[in-house]
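Researcher: Here's a chain I'd like modeled. Treat it as a single chain, no partners, no ligands.
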Amino acid sequence: GLGSVAVQAPVEGAGVVDGAPELPIVSVGAAVGLSTLADDGHDTTVRNIDGVRAADGAPELRLPLTSVGAAVGLSTFADDGLDTIARAIDGARAAEQARLLARFGNDAAKAESGTAVGASAMWTLIFNPAENGGLIMPVSRTWNFAPSPANDDWTYAIFDWDNLFATLLAALDGGADAEAYAYSNLFQVMKSKTAAGFVPNYAAGGMRTQDRTEPPVGAKVVLEVFKKFNQSWVVDVVWDDMLDWSDWFLRRRLLHPDGLVALGSFNEQSQHGSEAGGGTNNMQAARLESGLDNSPMYDGEFFDANRTHLMQLYDVGMSSMFVQEAYALAELASLTGRSDQVADLRARGDAMKAKIASNLWDESLQVFSNRFPNGSFYPRISPTSFYAMQAHAPTDAQAAAMVTAWLTNSSRFCVAPGGDFAGNADTCYWGLPSISADDPAFPPLGYWRGYVWGPMAQLTHWALQEYDHVPEVRAARKAMCRQLDALMLSQWRAHRHICENYNPHKTADTSHGDCSGTQFYHWGALTGLIGLVEDGLW
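Model: Modeled as a single isolated chain. Structure tokens:
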């Protein structure tokens, strides 16, 4: 209730013209307590500050500090000393730590994971009146696609699946505020839907990719959030958007003759390649639709720019996620009084499931794989092969064989059966790299060519959950959760970072022990979320 903020850390400042440290504030007229002794709440000067203006007109306070490492306290009460401010902060911190411990079953290890997951979403939470709900969780503070922002405070980007996963991360907390943040973020993403009917690859400030979407996970996320909070009005808000997105896939992303989903790019309003990321109606734009921008699965040139505007490749991951979405829509329809739509939505999923089962199982490799229309498989295997289990496409025997031959194989996806890293090489230590470790693209690494990614962890976990009755699958799922939670915590403990992606090496030596991507990117915490879900703490 003090309305105070204390900075109990070295203050290096932004540096004014003469090089002295400076401290920005958000309002003119604030009271400031300054001490050069970090633990001293008595040797404090309390003064009223009239403030100065920065070049862009924002008020800021410039305090020349006598030493780096000084403690600075800001309070809206003029008589608050640094000790009062520090006590308020310490008390709030202790209360929050106690709340988190209770929230995660009085298990300190789980509370640590839960804290990291919550921080991943809340660090990126911003208010932006240019969007639909006000509050949104951009992937990080470094990405921007907003056209001509007034200043750096208004830079942001909404990515389809990245931001949908942030709704899960925020919802984990379970409190009323976190629930509201999760809904607002969800609405922001789904309401970025284009006139053509799909949620775009990215959007910001009224701009959207008009040629391509990204992996469809919206209905599945809404289903998980609905099961947690039981708020049917949330489903009502986005129902038409979710259904439009599924319908659009049937209209624009089926590759014949077999009718499975393929990646594509085509702006129905214009064929001009004017959008960021390599234009439209080409192979690279279609790669971007996968969300796996440079995956070895899409090495080569097999895009039809003249007739279908699709990659000439049946995509096991996208086809399976389409089925998962159809089944999630059917379940949501059943739970929210839309019984007249259940049968059609189930049939939609069943039809694609049958096509996956009939066309994408590679018997020689014992795995579901992408396939060309001429019948030949494209055996660059990533975790998307496991997504076939989201669609219930494998038989139990196929699911067990795929997990044994690939997921728990230390030369491929490196999930030790006990979740203890036993038998894993240092080069594929943490498990679930974004391409199989025996692929020639893996040793040099790079982005989606071997790094470990949170969204793949989440999607693989959803897939494995569907075969809980198969002992090999169940054991592999639990082992994967243990290894990937340890991966997230290794960076959280060392650096307080949540990584865009993670180096699969035990020492992360290609990035000096730190993140291999953006150092605070919320979906990296999905590697920890799945373990909390596994332990019944969702």
